[in-house]
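Issue 218. Parser rejects a valid record. Input:
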Amino acid sequence: MSAFARIRYKLYGAAALVVVAVVGYVAVGLFQQEFVSYDKLTVKADRSGLILEKDQDIKFRGVKIGKIADVKQVEDGVLITADVERGNLEMIPANVRATIKAKTAFGAKFISLDPRPQPTSRRLSSGDALRADHVASEANDVLENLQEVLHTVEPGKLNAALSGLATGLEGRGDELGKTLVLANAYLGRLNGHLPTVKRDIAKTADVAELYADVAPDLLRVLDNATFTSGTIVDKQDSIDTILRDVTTLSGSVRQVLVENEQNLVTALDLLRPTTSLVARYSSELPCLLRGLDNANKLLEPVEGGTSPYLNLNVGFLPGAEPYRYPKDLPIVGARGGPGCYGLPLLKPSEVPTPYRQRNTGTNIFPEGRDDRLGPGDPPLVTHLFGPLAQPKSEVGPR
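Output the parser choked on:
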């Protein structure tokens, strides 16, 4: 290996060491946030409490926006210097509330900035000072106060009471919370009805007297209920049998439904077009049924009732028009709609009902013509021999 090559490799090694050192420095600097620009903010408080140290968080609406740079004691309290990441102060109202809170019961504290109900339009700027109006109590203060209570209260009785309370509340935290929220809502509504409640309480005496009057009836009902419950007890074997049979039946029905689940779905799907058509024409069904009932009442005397004869009005009907292609070809997807056409009760002048042209491709009578005979039309003799053969009582305009 030549001397030049050795020198080159040494330079490579030195360059690699420099790169590693630079990367390490940058990594440490990034970890320690040495390259982040900060704005200064001071917070003054009567006391800082325990474990409020350098590098603890400062948060706005629960989001970390910086860290505590220094905590020092002054004559009338403590002065806390905070480093806020540049750009965050522009979002914080100038009248923001500063409090010193604890992360846990025994954990370190941090500064929390919370907007007031009516924030100002002015924003904080670098160098502004805030006053902390609340510092969270430490666990040692709580324990000190608790010690004074324990000196007054007998520990044995307190332990028994707390044990019973803990047993009663175990596993019921959610239910208790919901109950308290519901009770708060009820009390809030009740406040607006206190005058009514007072008036109702005043009338309680009248209600009590009423219940006193009906007390014998209530006792009689309770006595009957006792007899009924005794009957149920006497028939409990039969009731058990019925319940078992119902359980067995429900199991069988469930098995049938499970096995035929897809078949039921398919059947209902196949019935969809039919039910849709029936639903579309459902308005015709009531008038049709009532019309059939009226027709049955009218047909009874025509059929003679209890007599052995028929009452008929016989006449000739002209022949229908012959089939013509392609005029009478059926139409696929013909349009129409429901209609009662005078039903359930037709007047004599409405019989026969006018023929209606349909969009089906085939009509018995040409459009605008109806050759059907109705009541009062010329009798058979007139059709055979002309109008001169018509009886005189029937000749004339109609």
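Fixed in the parser; the record now loads. The first strand starts at residue 38 and ends at 45.
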